[in-house]
Amino acid sequence: MTTGTLGRTVERNREFELLRSHFSKCLDGNGAVIVVSGSVASGKTTLLHSFGETAVEEGAVFLDATASRSEQDQPLSVIGQLLHSATPSQGEAERHKRLLVHAVSTAEPPAFLPPPGRGGADVRARRELANIFFERAQSAPLIIGVDDAHYMDQHSLECLLFLIRRLRSSRILLVLNESSRVPQGYQWFQAEVSRQPFTRIVRMNPLSRRDVSHMVTAALGEQQADQFAGVWHHISGGNPLLMRALLEDHQAATRDPLLEAPPGPAFHQAVSNCMHRCGDAVLAVAQGLAVLADGDPTSALEEILGESHATVAQSVDVLNSAGLLEGTGFRHKATRSAVLDTLSPGVRSRLHAHAARQLHTLGASAVAQARHLIAGDPVSEPWMTTTLLEAADQAVDEGQVYLAADCLRLAQEGCTDERMLAAVKAALVHVEWSLDPAVAGRYLPELTRAVWQHKLAMPAVLSVISQLVWAGDIEQAKEIFDAVERGDIGTQLPDAGDEEALTLTHAWMCCAFPDLLGRLPSAEGARPRNTTSMAALAVGAVLKGEADGSLVLEAEEVLQRSRLNGRSLGPAAAALAALVLSGRLRTAAHWCDALLQEATERNAPMWRALLLATRAHVDMRWGMLDAAERSAQVALDIAPPGGWGVLLGLPLASLVSAMVAKGRCREAEKYLRVPVPAAMFQTPFGLDYLQARAQYFAAVGQTSAALGDVHTCGELMDKWNLELPSLVPWRVRAAELSLELGRVQESRDQAQEQLARLRPEDYRARGMALRVLAASSAPEQRLPLLRESAELLVKSGDCYEQARTMTALKRMCQELGWLEQARKLESRIAELSSKYGFVPPAEVPEREESLATLAAPPSLAPSFTPSHDDQELVQDLTEAELRVAVLAAQRHTNTQIAKTLFITVSTVEQHLTRVYRKLRVSNRADLSLELLLRSVDHP
């Protein structure tokens, strides 16, 4: 056997060698019949022709034919193919033709199940036809192969049976390929053949995993076989045709041999070929199973197809043998897809509609019924709208947002009851928000009218309130909520008094608009009854400054208990907000990532966008600018600005702050030009946005505008009685900007007031405030402030603020000549900026650098003893010159010195000219800060 032949039959070596063994016996005059039995596409045809080619190479004659269902009514069609494949001479061909015509003309119509010898060609005709094969076998061994033998016409069966009874002492080997399940019209022939002593049965079982591994090794190599054989064996069910298709798709789809390619066009075509070769009854059952979803009762299939239980069961067995099914389910979604594609759209829709009715009759789940209602022809049944509403409810619980939306859209189309229609639309708004809040917002005016017309039950009313808050219509939301509390709305409708949803809606409304925080009950002594009230209580307490450790732990407990879906998203978001606002950023990040994974699995775009924006906020608080930018940008890609409502400030603030810190102010300006709702500035999200805009203004030199935004933050927080530096440390920002404007005392006062209002755990805000206070303090007072600031910023985890502190320390080291320590700090700053994506603070404009002029720790200070001559030179400076020199030595710009000392820039320049001359230096880099500080107190 040649290498090429071996490559074609590598998966059937055992069966091939069995045929070779019988062929060897045939050479010695021992004829035999080999029946090769197997399911569709099990490799019977490939085996037959590979064996035939090998036999021809070894001197045999190979005659072959393929039976067909479409030719079963044509007498002797298979015998005719065999004679034609012998490539007879012209004289032989004419003889064959005469014999066939005579045999057909003398044949009697066979009964449905003819016993041997009755019906078909007469005995003389059979003998003459058989003699043709015996004559051919005298000159060379003869291999006769019939593929799909179970589809032979009855006359050919009679002729072959005549031949079989007489071939034992001949050099003829007859190979019959038949299905593992044969039609009734073939069973009599099968019985006669199997009783012959020289008949051998070869079972073509599905390929084992080892067989598949050999196939993959031969085609791709051992490494790929180790990686893919197990998966492909499961997908193909051991079907050689499907396996070869998987190999073909893999080789065509990827250049990386170690990267698995999904089933593709070749696999799709192979499945289709299998289905059409299985027969109409099996194809119909496969199509019915493909229409039914996994989990649907297969008992519905009999009614849908109008077939008996026995027919369906037998077809399922055939499909299992063919490697298409595992039990009653398809082995792979690509298999189901290929089977569905054998249906025309019209037939598929009718099957879905029929399936919906049958599943309803059988009492299947609402979701199972709904899937078919959505995919099928319109169904006008009284139960349809109720079923779709129930299915949407189940889908929301299971996190299947798109399915819920499809259910509600279809319910809306078929609903004629006014009250029911309002309920459907309210549910649809709730679900549409998860996909695109901008679309959901279009329903709000209509639903608001439905609320006042008493058409909605309590859960739907509360959903409308939440949507109004999101859209920024707080007045309408408050008005409806107050009516609910008074009992004017909802009490007379079903599901009134849904206290859990009421609690959460109230908390969402008050936290989104802190003007209403006073309406929330105090956390002191409160005993939450469930996760919803726990989450609501926790976030409210944090905003009101009443939170203790136990409440924050309860917020985390809410997240531990929750499985993300349309109902749990609200409590989960509230609990996550409580963690972020209370400064538990590490815990918040963990749960944010966990919820993001669930939101991705449930394919809920707005859930993902909201969680990504929250993660971006956390990353900004850590100074991880690359991560913050990515998350915020993806959030806005998923949900464009028009759908964010008052929460638009959340992703925009992160993007603007990240861009500014990265030195990309032009891009930051682009995001600041995005229109934002006016109502946003009545929410905490507006505070975040104002703070980011202030950072932009400061970076482009508009310090007064920046200070204005920061003061607006402060006014709003004072108005709301909101002291939450973890959200917006506005006093620190104001102190920084005041210092840049030269208002030193004002800066000190603001920093000190911020420090007085902080809790011990407010590490970040305290560290920032201490740094600003140090920058506005006398040099000898800076060291302890800066050391504490550095320690707190490390504890907070904010890498960007740490870098700002280290930049100031580096500058001070350079000024004092401590170059080794300065190099170490510079290396660490570069490491942080490279890792987290910000511009090293040393490279931002001077007006920002001046805010971080810090002294070095005493352990870094080298000994310094000024010479007597140096001290005499300093004594020559006037008081005004000395003050200017000190500030210049601290790397203040001329403009900043002028603002600090309330003089003109021209006067500063004149003073510095005289200072340089008197101290015999050429520029401010040569000024000795410590020498100057020994001669004058800092102003």
Structure overview:
The structure is a single chain. The chain is mostly helical and 939 residues long. It is 65% helix and 4% strand. The protein has 48 helices and seven strands. The strands form two sheets. Strands 2-3-4-1-5 form a five-stranded parallel sheet, with helices on both faces. Strands 6-7 form a two-stranded antiparallel ribbon. Strand 3 (142-147), helix 7 (154-164) and strand 4 (172-179) form a beta-alpha-beta unit. Helix 6 (123-139) crosses helix 7 and helix 31 (605-621) crosses helix 33. The protein is elongated, with a radius of gyration of 43 Å. The protein starts with a helix and ends in a 6-residue tail after the last helix. Residues 1-8, 111-120, 491-497, 842-868 and 929-939 have low confidence and may be disordered.
Which properties best describe this structure?
939 residues; five-stranded parallel beta sheet; elongated; mainly alpha; 65% helix; 48 helices; disordered N terminus; two-stranded antiparallel sheet; single chain
Number of helices: 48
> Strand fraction band?
under 5%
Which structural class best describes the helix and strand composition? mainly alpha
Kindly, what is the distance between the CA atoms of the first and last residues, rounded to a whole number of angstroms? 102 Å
Largest sheet: 5 strands, parallel
What do the pLDDT scores average to? Answer: 83
Cross-sheet strand order for the largest sheet: 2-3-4-1-5
Q: Per the principal axes of the C-alpha atoms, what is the gross shape?
A: elongated
Poorly predicted tracts of residues: 1-8, 111-120, 491-497, 842-868, 929-939
Number of strands: 7
Tell me the helix content: 55-70%
CA radius of gyration is: 43 Å
